[in-house]
Design a protein that fits this description.
The chain has 234 residues and is of the alpha/beta class. It has a five-stranded parallel sheet with strand order 2-1-3-4-5, with helices on both faces. Helix 4 packs across helix 10. The longest helix is centred in the C-terminal third of the chain and has 26 residues. The relative contact order is 0.16.
């Protein structure tokens, strides 16, 4: 028997001794008051994140406008994060390469963490702290934008990416949790969400959608031909 199998047997034994959970039928309300209170508290804590974002709505709008102007000139967006923030960064690049909620031409946007072979090669040869900085040096050009997401604002690999971008005249924007924090300080501009980490990360998605809203509006204003008729395909 392998060590892994032995540990799994121990885990299963512990689960077997755990108290039975109350039965919950489809569509029935969950009766555990502690769980219900925890969910309500989590949802209540979304409000501070939204209020923090609302107070910075002007900056989010400015990011969307500037990003549209740059990308219409042929610049590129790079984005990176770790864990859940990586998923958020990839959501942003998908909105730009694909679409937000209206038909338009695609724009060049790359999620640096999604290049798995490059990530593992760089981490193996240079260390994990350099996985984004080296890709910034490879893909980034003067005038591009690098968006970095981190609830803590302390990730060394994002800090190194910001440093590499500054040397290449790449504009850096950070989406973080509560500030001040090192990443916000290292980037040209930052939106810091004053909320618990989980709620700040939820706020990041709202912030990205807000940027996309302003982005699409500016694209339509400056280059109507880039905005296609609803239902059309390029």
């Amino acid at each position: 028997m392998t060590a892994e199998s032995s540990l799994r047997d121990i885990d299963l034994a512990h689960l077997a001794m755990a108290p039975a959970l109350p039965a919950v039928l489809p569509g029935a309300a969950f009766v555990d008051s502690a769980s219900a209170d925890a969910v309500r508290l989590h949802l209540d804590n979304v409000v501070p994140a939204l209020e923090s974002l609302r107070s910075q709505s002007g900056r989010l709008a400015a990011w969307g406008v500037e990003l549209a102007q740059r990308m219409l000139r042929g610049q590129r967006l790079l984005a990176a994060g770790n864990g859940g923030s990586a998923a958020e960064a990839q959501h942003l690049t998908a909105e730009l390469v694909g679409r937000f909620d209206g038909e338009r031409v695609p724009f060049s946007a790359i999620s640096l963490h999604a290049e798995t072979s490059a990530i593992t090669a760089i981490a193996n040869d240079y260390g994990y702290d350099d996985v984004f900085a080296r890709q910034v040096r490879a893909h980034g050009r003067s005038g591009d934008v690098l968006v970095l997401l981190s609830t803590s604002g302390k990730s060394p690999n994002l800090l190194r990416a910001a440093e590499a971008a500054s040397r290449l005249n790449i504009t850096t924007w950070a989406l973080t949790g509560a500030g001040p924090n090192p990443l916000a300080a290292a980037c040209d501009e930052a939106v810091m969400i004053d909320a618990l980490n989980a709620n700040a990360q939820e706020g990041h998605l709202i912030a990205l959608h807000a940027v996309c809203r302003a982005f699409d509006l500016e694209v339509g204003r400056r280059h109507p031909a880039a905005t296609l008729q609803q239902g059309a395909r390029p």
